[in-house]
Amino acid sequence: MPTSPLATDVSGTTHGRRLSGGVARAGLLLLATGALALTALLSLRVGSVAVSSRDVLGALFAYAPESYEQTVVRALRLPRTIVGAGVGAALALAGAGMQAATRNPLAEPALLGVNSGAAFAIVAAVHLGHLAHPLQHIWFGFLGGLGAAALVYAIGSAGPGGATPVKLALAGMVVSALLGSWTTALLLLDQQALEVVRFWLVGSLAGRDLGVFRAVSPFLLAGIGGMLLLGRHLTVLSLGEEAARSLGMHTGRVRALVVGLVALMTGAAVAAAGPIGFVGLAVPHMVRGLVGPEYRWVLPLCLVTGPLVLLGADILGRVLARPGELPVGIVTALLGAPFLIALARRRRGVEP
Amino acid sequence: MRTRRPFGTPMAHRFLQAVALLLTAVALSACGPGAAPPAGTGPSPVGASEADGPSPSAPTGADTEPWRFTDDRGVTVTLPRRPVRIVAQSTAAAALWDLGIRPVAVFGPQRRPDGSKEPEIGNVDLSAVESLGEQWGELDLEKLAALRPDLIVTTMYQPPSLWYIPDEVREKVEAIAPTVAIHVAGRPITEVIDRFEELARALGADLSAPQVAAARQRFEQASASLREAIAAKPGLKAMFAGASLETLWVAVPSWYPDLLYFQQLGLDIVVPEQTDQFYEALSWEQALKYPADLILYDRRSYVVPPEELARKVPTWNQHPAVKAGQVGPWYATAAFSREGFAAIMEELAATIRQARADVVD
Description:
The complex is a heterodimer. Chain A is mostly helical. Chain A has helices at about 5-15, 20-45, 55-60, 70-100, 115-130, 135-155, 165-190, 190-200, 210-230, 230-235, 240-245, 250-275, 280-290, 295-320, 330-345.
């Protein structure tokens, strides 16, 4: 497979031990896919109750609802594995897109205000309407996330120069802080709302039913598909505004497209699992550290590594707090802190 | 600040959760079916204002002698005369109210967003008392000082921390008036109620008033009939629990005044492995960890109701008690009121009479 000259250039200047050959990268992708398959099986096999491999196979191919072990696998672990795979892929891809489009190594999907928008919309809906049905929460969360992203983009692209990375980042921070304070205010005023949304406010794969995931999956798939097609554009965009323009790219349009796709994917992911940090930030860094900043490779690897990391964190959460569980949002936050420190200390090498 | 959290995620803020969960044990008299509000013929109000003059029901309270009361921290409050202007936390106010003591002001949960009363506030007439704030940390110190209270009464779940008087403001509160704290966790509900009765008597309540006596009688009858119902079902195992879509919480009976009392009446209650918190948190994979014939399920509005669990959590449906259709209500915010708790026991007795004891061995 031919390698883009751009990628060789850039990766050559930063990190010597990256894999730059097409064969090596393809091998890596294959390896990651294999690891993901293994993790998905582990996610069905491992949990707070011991289940045999035979029960896992039974639950998948010859489900016997009267068997408790098979019910655990089929009704609890299979849905969370599917949701985890979808959400992990979406968050990692959205993070890669954000980091490339804003040229900001700390960019992550939450920068667009999607999480805070979703949280605010859900809390406000519960407060005003006393909603009870979770599917209603989901749609409010999804629309709130999209609304916040649109607002961030509108503010970030106002004024001369359009949507520059710095303006987007500042707009994202402002809108997130504002929505966050409104959410806190509502929760202080309305204890009942707090009781209703508390579990949603920590990202988790447990207890999220497949119906919700099914409802948002078209958006998830559209976002993932769209982002995967933008690999070349992201590589160019990540070189910087001037370089990209000099290569003939309409940076404003591409950036708007990326932001739209990120909002779509993240909104769907947040609606399905609640806000989950770290994956969108860390996975693109890990992937770029391995294959360099050629986004035609970064994106497919993110697609595989995102679910790998999220499912791995979920399995950890199930094992660590036995007989209870840690929600995956807590596990990723715990893992994320040291990762961020390491990232800050390394400084060079993993810039988008 | 989150208060009134009944249950929380298992990993973080265990302490806070534990405290909050304990709320579970707080008053609910108004919610028990048949818990009648006090009629106008009840014991004479004490302490509504000094203008009321000496309480007619307090021959012992000669106002010339100093007043003494030792609370559950072991702190002895000494006042030159019997306190009249009393400020109380919601739970304590509800317990005292049913015994004829009328506080001038309350703090802590009072009304729900829909305007109905919180279970904690019991039969207290909210139009007759001042409010000093409803949320944790909201206690209005200026208003409290302006009321010139003689005594502040609250509860304790984890002594010596006072309920709804955060440690940061405790000194300021105690500079306004002395505090009396009643320990309401980890001992049977009868002991808690007895303590409130001792306090009420010291405050001048007439515990031989007809309504108090009637409540006592109803409580004794309800206890006896619950004891009988339990004895008629040997081998019956009960589990007290609540849940979210992610977690099943199994109550640890030694923390809950109501469950401790049910145990005294002979009920065999599931005791989780982990007993240093108010409950053991189980992932839904562990739904079968504690077999039981009967599940008594927390019916507070923010706990996911069993009907929803049945639709969404397949492992819930596999619990033997659920399979057998034996899921009854647990009023986890049990009242420190004989009247209110009698109603709860009457309903539990009816549930047990209908239950099969042979679902699990």
